[in-house]
Amino acid sequence: MRNPPLRYRQTPRELESRLEDLEQAGALKPALARLVLAAAAATQGRPQTVRSVLKLVLRRGAPVDQVREAILQSYLFVGYPRVINALAALREISGVDGGALPVDLRAAADLPDTWEANGQALCRRIYGSRYEKLLATMVVLSSDLPRWMVLEGYGKVLSRPLLDSHTRELVAVGSLVPLRVPEQLRAHSRGALHVGARPEEVKLTLRVAALVCPGELPQAELVLERVLGEAEI
Question: What's the pTM value of the predicted model, to 2 decimals?
Answer without folding.
Answer: 0.92
